């Protein structure tokens, strides 16, 4: 495995996939690199630089005295959860080294009474199904809208429902130039489902979804709370939304009335893969009961390397969040302005989505059909150029930007796209 990881690190010119930190360089930029003591040419410095994973092995500990305990935190781990509660403005935060999956499953187990039901988006993550099975509760599904980013609104009535598979296979293309992707859930469809089935205790939906489409959480929360139910938002792909106070990205679920919001801080932020945070708002969810359910699912030997990365991510957000968000926004604006000059490809923008749903344009979603390429073909060509996307499907490639991306990554991408279409 080590050989593969070293080779990949050497080959990759630009990362547009998880995790959000995009590699060690980000932490060096933020001041968490090699200690400043050794001379840059010294043997000590070079040994530190080349140590790789072994340089952090000394931090791989267990619950020794002073190290606190994730299952009953009251020291340094509790300090991490308190920092995330402050960052996201929640009543109570919980960290996970078992990903968002454990947090989602715990949410379902804590919010649905025995014999009652969960209303879930049809394109929910597999952890929703798994959580319902563990809780022994029935799940009722509601289908999201299916939208054409360049067409006229909701296409749900005339589009192949296979488009709703998560992470979304694209439906067959209809009239020339049309394209269908899973959209958001409407407040009206949720209200209708809740009115038809009083045994539903809670609603869960992904927002943003895998394509970056964001549902109207504020309107959904109003309908859910009007009926005395609980709203859980799987915001795994939107841990960064809270950073963008300028309104250039959709409002985060934390500010739109959700009762419980789960974020994968590793996807777009700087913590390590398999880390996540759940935030409880209001009084609908009992933190003690949620913690009890989470303890059933989490490891009794949590990784201190993962928890340390959560602490570093919180510190970076506190100290540099505003400037990093500004830089990220500037780089995205530069990309979207320059990609307009490349023929034969189409890129989803907030302007093309507004009125149907909303869109987190930190996900770069490119349609290559005009260049005569499938998403798989395009992904292969990008990888040959050292650019690694998040996924491809149909004629689309999705590139997941993160807090660790720099302007040069976007420049490399623009150059590669220009060359690709010139050869098509």
User: Can you tell me the overall shape?
Assistant: globular
So, the CATH homologous superfamily of the largest domain?
Type I PLP-dependent aspartate aminotransferase-like (Major domain)
CATH architecture name of the largest domain: 3-Layer(aba) Sandwich
Could you tell me the radius of gyration in angstroms? 22 Å
Please describe what this structure looks like.
- With 424 residues, this protein is α/β, with parallel strands linked by helices.
- It is 38% helix and 15% strand.
- The chain contains 14 helices and 17 strands.
- The chain has a seven-stranded mixed β-sheet, sandwiched between helices.
- α4 runs parallel beside α11 and α5 (99-111) packs across α10.
- It is globular.
What can be said about this structure in brief?
The chain has helices at residues 2-11, 24-29, 43-50, 76-88, 99-111, 126-135, 187-196, 217-226, 265-268, 287-295, 304-339, 350-353, 375-384, 407-423, and strands at residues 14-15, 92-96, 117-121, 138-142, 146-147, 181-182, 200-206, 213-214, 230-234, 260-263, 276-280, 346-347, 358-359, 363-367, 387-388, 391-393, 396-400. It is α/β, with parallel strands linked by helices and 424 residues long.
Ordered list of secondary-structure elements with their pairings:
Blueprint: H1 2-11, E1 14-15, H2 24-29, H3 43-50, H4 76-88, E2 92-96, H5 99-111, E3 117-121, H6 126-135, E4 138-142, E5 146-147, E6 181-182, H7 187-196, E7 200-206, E8 213-214, H8 217-226, E9 230-234, E10 260-263, H9 265-268, E11 276-280, H10 287-295, H11 304-339, E12 346-347, H12 350-353, E13 358-359, E14 363-367, H13 375-384, E15 387-388, E16 391-393, E17 396-400, H14 407-423
Parallel strand pairs: 1-15, 3-4, 3-7, 7-9, 9-10
Antiparallel strand pairs: 2-11, 5-6, 8-13, 10-11, 12-14, 14-17, 16-17
